[in-house]
Amino acid sequence: MxxxxxxxxxxxxxxxxxxxxxxxxxxxxxEKLLVAAYGSTDPVELDGVGGxxxxxxxxxxxxxxxxxxxxxxxxxxxxxxxxxxxxxxSNCGNCATGVALYAVAKGLVPITGxxxxxxxxxxxxxxxxxxxxxxxxxxxxxxxEQTVPGTRAGGVAVGLTFLDPAGRTTGHLxxxxxxxxxxxxxxxxxVLVSMxxxxxxxxxxxxxxxxxxxxxxxxxxxxxxxxxxxxxxTAAPLMGLLEPGQAPGDxxxxxxxxxxxVPYTTTLGEAVAAEDYDVSVRMLTMNAPHPAIGLxxxxxxxxxxxxxxxxxxxxxxxxxxDWLRLGTPAGVVAVRCSDLRDGLPxxxxxxxxxxxxxxxxxxxxxTGRAQAA
Amino acid sequence: MxxxxxxxxxxxxxxxxxxxxxxxxxxxxxEKLLVAAYGSTDPVELDGVGGxxxxxxxxxxxxxxxxxxxxxxxxxxxxxxxxxxxxxxSNCGNCATGVALYAVAKGLVPITGxxxxxxxxxxxxxxxxxxxxxxxxxxxxxxxEQTVPGTRAGGVAVGLTFLDPAGRTTGHLxxxxxxxxxxxxxxxxxVLVSMxxxxxxxxxxxxxxxxxxxxxxxxxxxxxxxxxxxxxxTAAPLMGLLEPGQAPGDxxxxxxxxxxxVPYTTTLGEAVAAEDYDVSVRMLTMNAPHPAIGLxxxxxxxxxxxxxxxxxxxxxxxxxxDWLRLGTPAGVVAVRCSDLRDGLPxxxxxxxxxxxxxxxxxxxxxTGRAQAA
Lengths: 373, 373
Fold this sequence. Notes:
Chain A is an alpha+beta fold and 373 residues long. In chain A, 17% of the residues lie in helices and 37% in strands. The first copy, chain A, has two domains: 2-167 and 354-363, Roll (Diaminopimelate Epimerase, Chain A, domain 1), CATH 3.10.310.10; 181-341, Diaminopimelate Epimerase, Chain A, domain 1 (Roll), CATH 3.10.310.10. The first copy, chain A, contains five helices and 20 strands. In chain A, strands 1-2-3-4-6-7-9-20 form an eight-stranded mixed beta barrel. A two-stranded antiparallel sheet of chain A has the order 14-15. In chain A, a hairpin with a 6-residue loop joins strand 4 (72-79) and strand 5 (86-87). Chain A is globular and about 55 Å long. The N and C termini of chain A lie close together (10 Å). At the A-B interface, strand 1, strand 9 and strand 20 of A face strand 1, strand 9 and strand 20 of B. Strand 20 (344-363) of chain A pairs antiparallel with strand 20 (344-363) of chain B.
């Protein structure tokens, strides 16, 4: 079976995009196809097109949306590395920027002058997003000069806006009703956390309350990963993300440390001063330190920044400007909350870049394991 | 620029294959294309099709051979990760199995019954190889059930034979004229090594003489990597691989530890008894522990096993059968030396598997850096 697919880079993620017409609609069959195509049963995804890291083992299925006012539906898949399974519970903002560019480049939406708006619905979470793709001159561009923290490579500029992101998964911006609260993790003293649902359900730990800083190196973050995973699993039922008796997964809630800004050096070796940003953030992606920050998490952090008691508000030392600047290992990611109503943002925007890397036909073994033809 | 390419798995390597007609013949221009296509300037090869590990950041350029009796020429490229450069000095046997399957699948050689022989010349080293591809029923197979140590995935069986492999790079099986000798590495006591040129130029360290075992875990090997790199750099000029004043590279000679067989557990969790194999081998690939063994190195180890004084002969405890069984982190790789003349093997064979993963058109930025279109 040869399945058409397009490899895109969206920001700091790589993602294979499949059009719905080429893959099974039934979720179980689709999962089998992705596991086989990626070589997902293997820890290094040797026998397939997977990239063997959480940020390069992603997929999305794209289709024209039946929803009025929405151009594109996409279903995001976090393809497991060595597990032979797919996580279906989260969204990926980086991939959404790739979806927006793909929609324009493949003619799924008409080009409208120098910028083309693509309205997208994420099937996993119900999130609605708007991608504003640079189509200068009324043309699709294969390459561009827009960069994002975490890579020096340029891409086509895509402004990504999350529309009314609060409460999409749980029904509430604050699933526990509190902007911040103490959380007892294992047998240690409680730590201060904010559990918010905006962009994605996220649990943010006040780093200082956990004897950490929020400005840890990726190496240091690896030693904190098991503990943060316990925080995730402790928060999940409190956020209403688990049915009773269900085992917690590793995709939601997202989890990370938040701290005060301090001078640090990015993974690309650039010096960042404390005054260059507002809060330090160190997130996990699945069970590994995120090299930058997932955009859905960035939305949650920025939205939490609007709430007076939250761990983000405290770390930032009070209210910030229009843009909240997040200090991540890869560099500073700026997030803009606008169109505020009752304290909730109607629009949360990040400036990103995307690039098509390859159009392919993937040889997919007919089951999760390779077979004789 | 959209460049056609095919992603193959050959054994435990992933490699993009380009046909010569689609890429520049001039080496500098070709290097620019590969660097741009792979995103090679970035340490995680985010902006391209590279796999960001030494065994998944490989390429080869394939063409019909003008040489009588040879079907296919291929030029191997070890695409640097984060360097923006390509190493051109080595061959890759795993990739050669992929080249053989590709040659059959793309119709570059005629199918001849249940097995199809593909004679290949490696442009980098002058090595001549024979791939015997399973074409049961006179058909090309997309999938197969043959496995190799290091992955549970099946592929199409490809028997790979190196023809007259001794001395291809330096002119001599033993570039220093000795089957084993003491080598002073840095300021420490000398260690016992064999420097052999068969398949590839390789320096093999008697693990015991270096207070090591040859059965180290990959984690342990990471701590030995800087030292082994020093061994490589010390051996390179003695093997005639460096012009005076030239800085040593990381592709040749290949370097590794050889020791006696002991019980161990493979990276896939399988138990291996000491009697299941003849010698322990732990190699580097570029500057990282090899998860298994490069086939060109396997040829060197097997050929050294024929030499009474070599570190391989000593570790094996004397002569072995037709097949020398190498205990690698991923499992046991068996190598057969045959057609012996004057003690040199005319044929060195390994049983491997390969699979086509994807046919693609790669969007290649026009220089090493992405550009506006």
